[in-house]
Amino acid sequence: MGTLKFHIIFSLIFLMSFSSFSQTKEQLELQRKKYRVEITKLNTLLFSEIRKEKNALEELKDIKQKIDVRNKLINTINLEAQLLSKGIRTNQRKLQKLNKSLEDLKADYAAMIYKSYKSKSQQSRTMFLLSSQNFYQAYKRLEYMKQYTSFRKKQGEEILVQAVYIKKLNDSLGYQKRVKDTLILVEKDQKAAIEVDRKKQEGLITTIKKKEGKYKREIQQKVKEEKRIAARIDKIVKEEIASANRLALSKLKDKPAATKKNEFILSPEAKALAAKFELNKGKLPWPIQEGVVVRRFGKQSHPSFPGIIINGTGLHIVTSKGSSANAIFNGEVLNILVGSGGTKNVMIRHGNYITSYNNLENSYVQKGDKIITGQKIGKIFTDKITGKTTLVFVLLQNTNKLDPASWMLRR
Length: 411
Known about the structure:
Blueprint: H1 2-47, H2 56-118, H3 122-130, H4 135-210, H5 212-251, H6 268-279, E1 292-295, E2 298-301, E3 309-312, E4 315-319, E5 324-326, E6 331-338, E7 344-350, E8 353-363, E9 370-371, E10 376-380, E11 389-397, E12 400-402
Antiparallel strand pairs: 1-4, 2-3, 4-11, 5-10, 6-7, 6-9, 7-8, 8-10, 8-11, 11-12
Helix pairs in contact: 1-2, 2-4
C-alpha cells in the first residue's frame, strides 16, 4: 500500500507542476500570437500601399515600429523556449525517477512470481494448511495466501499504471521538443526579417542625414501646426462648455451657488451617463474595427530625431482604406469641426466626457444627434500621397485630455 500511495502522490505533483507550467506557457503563446497578428497588420496597413511620394521620415518611422514589434516577438519566443527547456529538463528528471521506480517494481514482482512458482502446486498449498498446529493457525495461513495473491495482482496493476505514466511523459517530452524546434525556426525567420528591415533603415537614415536640416524644419513646422490645431480645438471645447452651461442654467430651477470654469454643469441624466462612462473604463470598445496605433498619447521623442519632442493629444490609429469611425459610447454630437484640408472632426459628449474623432472624410451625423455605442459616425480620410487611413482619436474630461488607451479594451 505504501508503494501505491507514493505513486499516487508523485503523479499528483507531476500533474500540478505540469498544469502550472502549461498556464504560463499559454500566456506566452497568446502574447506571441498577438505580436504576429500585429506584424501582419503593420505589413497590411503601413506597407501594402504604393506611395505616390516617397517620404523617408515616414518610411523610417514605419520600419522602426515593425522592428520594435519583431523584437518583442523574439523576446517572447525566447521566454517560451526557456520555459519549454526548463519543462523538458524537469520531465526528464521525473522520467528517470519513474523508470527507476518501474525497474524496482518489476524486480519485486519477478521475485514474487518466482516464490509463487516454487510453491504453486495445490499439494504444497494443501500441505501448508494441513501442517498447521491448530485451526487458528490454519485460518491465518489461508488469509496470508489470499493476501499474497491479492498483493501480486496489485503489483501487476501498479506496473501497468507506471508504464502508462512513462508513455505519457515520453509523449509530452516529444511534443515539447517539437514545439521548441518550431519556435527556434520562427525566431530565425524573424531575425532574418529584421536584418532586411535594418538594411532598409540604414539606407533611409543615410538619405535623411543628407537633408537633415530640411527634414527637421518640416517636423518642427508640423509640430507647430499640431499645436495650433490643438489650441483651436481647446478654444472650441471651452466655448461649447460655456454654451452648454448657459442652456443648463436656464433650465435649472435651483441655481448652483458657484460653477467651476471650463467644467460642464451636469443634469441628473448627464451625471448618470458620465458615471456609466467611468464604470466602463478599461472596457470601452475601440473606435475602429482593426488598426495599428502609430502614435500614442502624451509627450514623446520624435522616432527619427529624439531631440524634437512631439505631443500626442490622443491616439493616431492607422486602419484599412474605406473604414469608418465608430462611437465608443452613448452620447450626443457636441460639434463637427472642419479642418483646413476639408477633413472633419466629430465631437461627442458623454456627460462631462468628450470623445473626438478627427481626420474624417465625411460625417454621417449632425450636431445635436443622439448617438449609441458602435454607431458609425464618419468615413476616415485616406491620404492620397502616403496611402494611409489614419484616425486621430482624443478623449477629454471637460477640457482635460486623457489617455484613450487606458479607457479601452486591451488589444
